[in-house]
């Protein structure tokens, strides 16, 4: 169908742009995962993306995920990328392969308990409020190590990455210093022995800069599925 061709081409173009950005930075493009962000996107279109070989998806709402993930079927991995209400932790643990938005010890503990009850170990990322913005979720950069220390004592979650959304700007060059700061934080914490495999940063407007600065996961919605009505 026309729609399926559209998504196949958009995925291919995004992969090319990621590879070119990795090349400019002397990085291995295989070290950068493309996440397709499906918020507000209907399940049929997500299924088309999966049929094109897309294997990593991101959703920001548990309720939408509860409908979409079963509709798309087994195979792809799903990451929770939105703010998680604690009363939805159990559902999130059941639905998702990773929660990228852990930003407090309390949420880490709630997910740990829910994961233990489900008999699984849940990979999570710590979300970092890299711009220190008042209204934004995420742990402040100075709080991250303490949060990782606390999470290390929890047996049913494993922190495997950091995630960030820099302050909003139309100019990717304005995001670049924040990406660089995230990379430095990630590298420093890895040196201290934290098993942080992934650095999730970069969206449709700025993912090439994020890849140049060291992202291992880019989260793309608009460039793959078109402009959303609302988030
Ligand atoms: C919506 C969203 C994205 C994707 O944004 P686009 O600009 O459409 O690519 C990435 N990450 C998070 C956390 C989001 O909420």
Can you describe what's shown?
This protein is α/β, with parallel strands linked by helices and 231 residues long. The protein has a single domain (2-223), classed as Alpha-Beta Barrel (TIM Barrel), CATH 3.20.20.10. The chain is 44% helix and 17% strand. The chain is built from 9 helices and 8 strands. It has helices spanning 2-24, 43-51, 62-72, 89-95, 105-117, 144-152, 172-191, 207-212, 222-225, and strands at residues 33-37, 56-59, 77-80, 98-102, 122-128, 157-164, 198-200, 217-220. Strands 7-6-5-4-3-2-1-8 form an 8-stranded parallel sheet. Helix 2 (43-51) packs across helix 3 and helix 4 crosses helix 5. The structure holds pyridoxal-5'-phosphate. Residues 37, 39, 60, 81-82, 165, 203-205, 219-222, 231 line the site of pyridoxal-5'-phosphate.
Tags for this model:
single chain; 231 residues; alpha/beta; TIM Barrel; 8-stranded parallel beta sheet; 9 helices; 8 strands; globular; binds pyridoxal-5'-phosphate
Largest sheet: 8 strands, parallel
What is the mean predicted local confidence, pLDDT? Answer: 96
Instruction: Record the strand order, biggest sheet.
Output: 7-6-5-4-3-2-1-8
CATH superfamily: Alanine racemase
What is the count of structural domains?
A: 1
């Amino acid at each position: 169908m026309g729609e399926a061709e559209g998504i196949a081409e958009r995925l291919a173009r995004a992969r090319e742009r990621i590879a070119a950005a990795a090349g400019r930075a002397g990085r291995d493009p295989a070290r950068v995962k493309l996440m397709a962000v499906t918020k507000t996107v209907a399940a049929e279109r997500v299924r088309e993306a999966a049929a094109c070989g897309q294997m990593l998806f991101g959703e920001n709402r548990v309720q939408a995920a509860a409908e979409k993930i079963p509709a798309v079927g087994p195979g792809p991995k799903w990451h929770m990328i939105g703010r998680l209400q604690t009363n939805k932790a159990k559902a999130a643990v059941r639905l998702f392969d990773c929660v990228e938005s852990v930003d407090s010890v309390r949420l880490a503990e709630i997910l740990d308990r829910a994961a233990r009850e489900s008999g699984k170990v849940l990979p999570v990322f710590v979300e970092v409020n890299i711009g220190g913005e008042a209204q934004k979720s995420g742990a402040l950069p100075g709080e991250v190590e303490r949060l990782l220390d606390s999470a290390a004592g929890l047996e049913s979650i494993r922190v495997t990455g950091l995630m960030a959304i820099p302050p909003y700007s139309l100019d990717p060059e304005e995001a670049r210093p924040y990406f660089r700061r995230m990379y430095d934080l990630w590298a420093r914490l890895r040196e201290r022995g934290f098993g942080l495999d992934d650095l999730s940063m970069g969206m449709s407007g700025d993912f090439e800069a994020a890849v140049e600065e060291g992202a291992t996961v880019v989260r793309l919605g608009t460039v793959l599925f078109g402009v959303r009505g609302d988030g």
